[in-house]
Design brief:
CATH class of the largest domain: Mainly Alpha
CATH architecture of the largest domain: Orthogonal Bundle
Mean pLDDT: 77
Radius of gyration: 33 Å
CATH topology of the largest domain: Transferase(Phosphotransferase), domain 1
CATH superfamily of the largest domain: Transferase(Phosphotransferase) domain 1
Number of strands: 35
Strand order of the largest sheet: 3-4-5-6-17-10
Strand content: 15-25%
Helix content: 25-40%
Distance between the termini: 95 Å
Number of domains: 5
């Protein structure tokens, strides 16, 4: 062949490869997403059915949206609301903009405060996984409250939760996205929330903040977690921000798929190639694998792998072949076809060359595609391996491996370092349907290992890189704990940005669920409750006295006590725990814990001791005896804090007025109940030195009849209690309360905290 012909063939091969790659990536025809004769967009926002802007273009009234053309570009709103929509996903999500709550002060006097809220139609809820409640400020507490619906239930329940942030100046605030209570705090909202109201206030009206401007503001909002990364600049720049993104979930109807299918006319999954999925608010539809489009339209799910792409590829192949043939016969010698400008189409030599050119072109083109694909796949694999190696090293994987290797002789050491692929496969790539619990320190997923073991996998929210050594020590210590009443740590994964912890799965829920459900509580006899208390006390005694170094749990509460089928207690969630150095009896830390269970002395002094666990256990013991929640705004003001109300009732000899009816029916139990109540009262003593140790508590509970404090001993340093609790009042809108930084990781109805005046 002539050199210029060879050059043309090479250029055509390159052109062909580029065209094929482009057609495969971008050339597919977009599937139809709106009903015929309906507008499918507003500005740059697509509006898929079941949503629509005019009559007959939407499925139900809740899906009616309005396009406001007075803006450039036009803006989309939920009908008859000020809720602006930024995107609609057929996967069941709606992104909107929500207002920010502000609380501003000028020279110690409130200058402005607003209380934004959002109320949604019955088919919409606020996504509890994609969003977080966040507060930003120097001198701030923030509350989010409203109503939520439980799974497949139309009954609404109220909720209140929140967090607080304290710092003296901007120099105290860390940069880089950490929202830990200094300048910024965060917590979760319940699943199924359809009403959200945000409120803000200040402890000291910004009068104790140094180096701040005369105008000082706090901010609070529910925001899409992926769209908000905290920076200290937000302490001032948020005053110029009006709205932030929020993710809503939407569903079709309020039925399950099975119920909806019985009514064929109302069933919304119209496409023949669609599937139906239940969710917490109803059901939704999706296209089957291999199809794309709108499952709510007839023939809306179309094949994405065959006809369209094949025809496009055939079309682009014709162009280079024609060009190759043209160039070929313009440069062949005269013996092949005359004068070099025309060819005889019946010439057999011409047909051989034509077929050869086509075969070589197609073969080389596909070879190039295969090589490119393999190279890209290899690059992505190497990139992923490098990221995993980087995370593994940053999370202390090498140190952990060395320490585990050094302990191979230990019979108790069964800790395994899992790979990321193992845990992704176990949780179906961390599917939100596998979520079994959420707290301030992370999300817990139910997983199935390849050996058929069921496990609980905890995915932490954030880890402080400066405390990796402490994290490694904690994993090592927990891996060595061989206590029947501690949830067993099976292993961890360090190949992800934040470490994953793998625990044994406990199948009977939490003590909180059992106590605060009327039906379940009726099966919890006094013997079962005291056994749970004894087993929990035994664990804390073990952590404080037998473990080396000693461990302070720091978040003992009924939610963190799991029960198996035989009601055996299993203490869980060591995410807030601290190891106590051998030469120390107390630790100076940022206050962290759960409202209602938090040691008031720790709250005021920042000094964490083993007695802080004793106080929290005292609240749990009071819960077991009364069946009441640790904090609840539905009760009268003096009853909102269980710890305060229980202590007061014992002192006034009103114990049997507040005990759970399920355990006071037998007169023979009265003496035992009084003794246990006395023990709980001693644990709830405001001053830590006057509380018993967990070793003493465990011994008295195990001894039963050896509980030695009589009912008459009710005067527990009342003057000191009065001094430390001076100024105590319930938390609610307009009330003031304080602590250095606290993490609220449970949905509670109401909160009571001491104010800082006694310090």
């Amino acid at each position: 062949m002539a050199p210029n012909y060879v050059m043309m063939v090479v250029l055509d091969l390159i052109t062909l490869t580029v065209i094929i790659c482009s057609s495969l990536s971008f050339g597919a025809m977009l599937p139809r997403i709106a009903k015929p004769n309906c507008n499918g967009s507003c500005g740059n926002i697509s509006i898929p059915f079941p949503f629509g802007m005019t009559q007959d273009c939407f499925l139900e009234r809740q899906f009616l949206v309005t396009c406001n053309y007075s803006f450039q570009p036009p803006k989309l709103f939920l009908w008859n609301t000020t809720i602006e929509i930024t995107s609609i996903s057929l996967a069941g999500q709606l992104k909107v903009l929500q207002f920010i709550s502000r609380d501003c002060y000028h020279d110690g006097i409130r200058a402005h405060r607003n209380t934004p809220w959002i109320t949604l139609e019955s088919l919409f809820t606020v996504n509890s996984i994609a969003n977080k409640f966040i507060a930003v400020g120097y001198d701030t507490y923030a509350i989010v409250q409203g109503y939520y619906r439980r799974y497949n239930s139309s009954i609404s329940h109220s909720y209140v939760t929140g967090c607080m942030s304290m710092c003296n100046s901007i120099e105290d605030v860390a940069n880089g996205g950490e929202c830990s209570g200094v300048g910024c705090c965060q917590t979760s909202i319940p699943k199924g929330a359809w009403n959200v109201t945000v409120a803000l206030s200040s402890y000291n009206n910004y009068t104790r903040v140094t180096g701040s401007p005369s105008n000082s503001c706090s901010y609070a909002f529910v925001v899409e977690e992926a769209a908000f990364s905290f920076s200290k600049n937000y302490l001032s720049s948020l005053q110029n921000k009006k709205e932030l993104p929020l993710v809503l979930d939407w569903a079709i109807g309020q039925e399950t798929c099975e119920m909806a299918k019985k009514n064929s006319t109302a069933y919304a999954c119209k496409s023949n190639n669609s599937d139906c999925h239940d969710n917490s608010n109803g059901y939704r539809c999706s296209c089957m694998q291999g199809y794309d489009g709108d499952p709510y339209l007839e023939d809306g799910c179309q094949d994405i792998d065959e006809c369209i792409d094949r025809n496009q590829i055939i079309g682009v192949l014709k162009m280079p072949f024609a060009r190759i043939r043209r160039e070929l016969y313009m440069h062949v010698p005269s013996s092949f076809g005359g004068d070099g400008t025309e060819c005889n189409h019946d010439n057999p030599q011409r047909k051989v060359r034509d077929n050869l050119a086509i075969g070589v072109t197609v073969g080389v083109a596909f070879l190039v595609l295969i090589v490119c694909g393999c190279s890209y796949t290899g690059f992505q694999r190497r990139k992923m391996l490098m990221m995993k190696k980087k995370f593994f090293q940053e999370n202390g994987g090498l140190v952990l491996q060395q320490r585990l290797t050094g302990q191979e002789g230990s019979s108790n050491n069964t800790t395994k370092i899992f790979t990321a692929e193992e845990l992704e496969r176990a949780t179906n790539d961390f599917d939100k349907d596998r979520v079994i619990g959420q707290g301030g320190f992370g999300t817990v997923y139910k997983g199935y290992l390849k050996d058929n073991r069921i496990v609980a996998i905890k995915k932490s929210k954030v880890i402080d890189r400066n405390q990796i050594e402490q994290f490694i020590n904690e994993v090592i210590v927990l891996s060595q704990i061989n206590h029947r009443n501690v949830v067993k740590l099976l292993g961890c994964c360090l190949e992800t940005e934040v470490p994953l912890l793998v625990y044994e799965f406990i199948n009977n829920g939490t003590l909180s669920e059992q106590l605060h459900d009327k039906v379940k509580a009726s099966t919890l006899s006094l013997d079962i409750r005291l056994r749970v208390a004894t087993e929990t006390a035994g664990v804390l005694c073990y952590l404080h006295s037998a473990a080396y170094p000693p461990i302070i749990h720091r978040d003992i509460k009924s939610v963190n006590i799991l029960l198996d089928k035989s009601y055996t207690a299993k203490v869980s969630d060591f995410g807030a725990s601290r190891l106590v150095p051998a030469d120390q009896t107390e630790l100076s830390t940022l206050v962290q814990g759960t409202l209602g269970y938090l040691d008031p002395e720790y709250l005021q002094t920042n000094q964490l001791t083993e007695k802080s666990d004793v106080y929290s256990f005292g609240v749990v013991l009071a819960e077991l005896l009364t069946g009441r929640k640790a904090v609840c705004f539905d009760r009268p003001e003096e009853e909102r804090s269980l710890a305060n109300y229980f202590t007061s009732s014992v002192e006034k000899d009103h114990l049997f007025d507040i005990l759970d009816d399920n355990i006071v029916c037998d007169e023979r139990n009265r003496g035992q109940l009084k003794s246990v109540a006395m023990l709980a009262q001693r644990c709830l003593n405001v001053k830590g030195d006057d509380r018993p140790t967990m070793k003493e508590v465990a011994a008295e509970l195990e001894g039963g009849s050896r509980l030695k404090h009589s009912w008459a001993q009710t005067d527990q340093n009342s003057e000191e209690i009065e001094s430390l609790l001076q100024g105590t009042e319930p938390l609610g809108f307009g009330y003031e309360y304080s602590e250095q930084s606290i993490h609220i990781d449970s949905i509670t109805n109401h909160i009571t905290l001491p104010r800082p005046g006694g310090r």
